[in-house]
Amino acid sequence: MALTSTEYSRRRREKIKQDNPEKYKQLRHEENQKYYKKIKEPIEDIKDEEEINEDEEEIKEDDEEINEDEEEIKEDEEDNKKKTKIPKYLIDLNIITIDNSGFIIYKPLKKRIKTLNKSILQPQSIKLYYNSFKKIYKNYTKNELSEIFKSELLKLLSNDKYNHNIINKGLEFLKKDLYNFIKQLTKNELQYLYSLLTRIIGYAPIIKKIYPYMLQKQIEYQQSRANIELKDVNYIKYNKLSFNKDDVLQILNHFNDNKIESDKNYLTSRDKLIFGLFMLLPVRRPIDYLRMMIIDKEPLTEDKILIYKRNNYYYNKTFYYNRTKTKEIQKITVPDELDILIKNYINDRITGSLLLDNDNKQYTSSNLSIHIMRVFSKIYDISISGVELRHYYSTYINYLVKQKEITEKEHRKICDMMNHSYEENKKYAYCL
Length: 432
Known about the structure:
The protein is mainly α.
C-alpha cells in the first residue's frame, strides 16, 4: 500500500534522526522557525485550558465527561491575557541534544512567560488538574500521593494558604529527573502540569524547561490536523449523511412509517429532537444542548454572571446560549420544524432540562454522546458522534463555498451559529 505524504515525511524524519542527529536538529529548528513566523499572539494562548479538546477537538466519546471539564478551563485565566507581539525568545526552539532514546532536549526559555498565576479555578478545573497530576505521579513514582500532599495540593489549586515545604517535598523528583518524567506525558498532561506549576513560587526554572515541549506538541498537533483527507470510515459516514433540509424532513416525517414503537429502530420523540437539533440548525457542540433549560419567561441577561454558573435556555421559539466555549452570548431563533419537535417532546413541561435521560434526569455528557450515536445508528446503520457531525457539517459548508453556492459572508454567519471561528471552521473541514 502506498504511503501517504504524512507517513512518508514521518518515516523520512525518523531515518534522518537515527542516521544524522545534527541534520535532524537543523531540520526541526527550521520547521519551528517557519511555523512561528505565522503566530501573531503569544503561545501562552495555546489551548492551555478550555480548548484542549474541541480544538484538539477530536473529542473521544468515551472520555466525554473529562472533556466537558476541559471545555471550562480556559475561562479561568483567559481574562488576564493580552494580545502582544510574540517575543523573540518564544520563536527559538533550539535543540540542545538528543538522548539515546531519541528524546529531544530543548533549550529552556530565557525568561518566564508570566508572573505567578493567582487566577481562581473553577471546581471542574481543580478536579481535572488534581486527577491528572495524581495519575502521572503514580505512573512515574509507582506510589500514591500521600494524604498530606493531597491536602496541600488541593489547597494550592483552591487558592487557599498551603504549606510550601510539603509541596516542594512532593515535587522534589521534578528537579532531579524532569526530562525522564515529561517524556512520557501526553499533550494534555503536560499542559495541566505546566498550569499547576505556574501557581507555585520558585518553579520558574522548571517552567522554562517544560514550555518548549508544549510548543512542540502544539506544532505537531496543528500539522496533524492540516489538510486531512476524507477517507475510510469518515468517507462512508459523510456520504451517508445529507444536510439538505428536505432530506432531513423526509426522515423525520416518514422514518417511522410501517414501524411500531417496539421496533428496534423506531424513533421516539426524544430521538427525533436529538436528530433535529443537529440537522436542522448549524451543528453545535452537544454540551450546548446538555446545558439547555426550559423556562417559562424570557431569561435575564447573564453576561455579569460567572460563566460556569450560567445556563442556556429555550423560550418562545428561541435558544439563548449564555454558556458557550467561546464565552460568546448568542440568541438564535428556532426553525418552525425544530420547534414542533421540541414541543412534541417536552409536552407540558415548562421548567427543567430540555433533554432528559431514561431516568428523567439531566444527561451526563457521556450518556448524551452515546444517545446521539445511537440515534444516528438507527437512521443510517452506522454510529456518528456529535463531534464527527461538526466535522462533516464543516466539510459540507466549505464545499458549498467552493462551489459558490453560498458566499463567504453566509459562511461566516453559519460559523457563528456553530459557535466556531471562521478560520477554525475551515480547519475543521476534511479535504474533499
